[in-house]
Amino acid sequence: ILERFHTQIQNNDKEEQIFEKLNITIMENKSWREKVVRLHFLLTVKESAVNVPTNLDARRRITFFANSLFMKMPSAPKVRDMISFSVLTPYYREDVLYSVDELNNENEDGISTLFYLQKIYPDEWKNLQKRINDPKFNYSDADKEEATCHWASYRGQTLSRTVRGMMYYKQALELQCFLESAGDNAIFGGYRIMESSQEDERASAQALVNMKFTYVASCQIYGAQKKSDDWRDRSCYKNILHLMIKYPSLRVAYLDEREEIVNGKSQKFHYSVLLKGGDKY
Questions:
Q1: Is 16 within a domain?
Q2: 3-state class of 48 per DSSP?
């Protein structure tokens, strides 16, 4: 009995050695070592309240992320085993991307859309100005106007904001698929910073996600906007085209109307069209 008790004590002592199998060779990876140093800095350094973000949405996101670190989350099922799903966004003639003229156009009260957004999001507007005026990035005047239009459009009821938000699903699935198949070195190096030898893993993840997730914008009059002489319709057409180029997995469905001669008479025919962007555009 004493021998059994002594053996049990030894086993318990052995189990208490929680750092016995600690693999310190992983610290040879520069990227992983930087993450450990950063984590140690976050856990040990007391920062003043001055460094707390003033933006309420930024606080909410950081708080949610910090709380999620202490959650007992179950393991997510593999992307390969998930059921494919599609998302459809109906669109008719709503704003796609605000233009400079639309942002500066004043209403009957003398208030423009850009002025209103500047007052609603003063800290975010200040951060935007700091980025686009930084000499390090060397923004041209055209680039500044484009960045301002995107900044305003992502804070209004526009199609570009909706498309960007839905494409986060695809980005999240690609990251999950990459983490499921990649090795330790690839994970520690990061998904966005990959070596040429790891490009096959990213391509495989993107191909698998394309089979699992489909996003379609139902732009009913896209064909008519393409042929229209109205400046707003042409602007919507070009902006939708730019969205397809920016997000290659985006699909645009619309009804096309054609006139064809049948038995010597002109008749209208309607076709269902599904478009996707590409480099040739």
A1: yes
A2: coil
The verdict on residue 181 lying in a domain is: yes
pLDDT at 5: 47
Contact 251, 216 (CB under 8 A): yes
- Highest mean pLDDT (candidates 70-74, 177-181, 247-251): 247-251
The domain in which residue 252 lies consists of 85-106+157-276
Residue 115 included in any domain: no
Residue 250 CB neighbour total at 10 angstroms: 22
What single DSSP character describes residue 215?
E
pTM here? 0.76
What are the strands, taking DSSP E only, across the chain? 85-91, 213-219, 250-262, 265-276
Task: Evaluate whether residue 119 is within a structural domain.
Answer: no
pLDDT tens, position by position, 171-201: 999 988 888 877 655 566 665 555 555 677 7
CB 199 within 8 A of CB 192: no
Asked if residue 95 and residue 52 are part of one domain, the reply reads no
